[in-house]
Amino acid sequence: MGKKTVKFSGEGILNLPNDKPALYKILTLNDNNNYTGVAQRGRVRERIMEHLGEIPGAKVRIEQMKSIGESQEKESRVIRRSPPNTINRNRITEINP
């Protein structure tokens, strides 16, 4: 599926596709992962906008998936392989009981 990287700003986020579920990563200037999450079809932009001002980052990278389930599975693998710097402890506990 499609991948896209944009500046982590309102203007950049508005340039993201919204038509499929997606895995997204909020990245630093050095491409270090600060946050990993998933968004449903039709909510990709809205979900990422919720993080503006709360999670530091320079850019956001999305990868579109066929289903939200596929996005969640990949999210689990990404977090296990390279944990983000900014962690939602409740979400990690659910993924790694």
Task: Give a short overview.
By secondary structure, this protein is α+β, with helices and mostly antiparallel strands. It has helices at 10-14, 44-49, 68-81, 89-95; strands at residues 3-7, 22-27, 33-39, 59-64. A hairpin with a 5-residue loop joins strand 2 (22-27) and strand 3.
Q: Give me the CATH architecture, please.
A: 3-Layer(aba) Sandwich
Proportion in β-strands: 15-25%
Largest sheet: 4 strands, antiparallel
Strand numbers in spatial order across the main sheet: 1-4-2-3
Q: From N to C, what is the helix and strand string?
A: EHEEHEHH
Mean pLDDT: 87
Name of the CATH superfamily: GIY-YIG endonuclease
Output the structural class. Answer: alpha+beta
Number of strands: 4
Q: How much is the radius of gyration in Å? A: 12 Å
Shape: globular
Could you estimate the helical fraction of the residues in percent? 25-40%
CATH level 1 class label: Alpha Beta
Number of helices: 4
Distance between the termini: 30 Å
CATH level 3 topology:
GIY-YIG endonuclease
Whole-number total of structural domains:
1
**Oligomeric organization of the protein chains:** single chain
Low-confidence stretches: 89-97
Defining key terms:
single chain; 97 residues; alpha+beta; GIY-YIG endonuclease; 4 helices; 4 strands; 33% helix; disordered C terminus
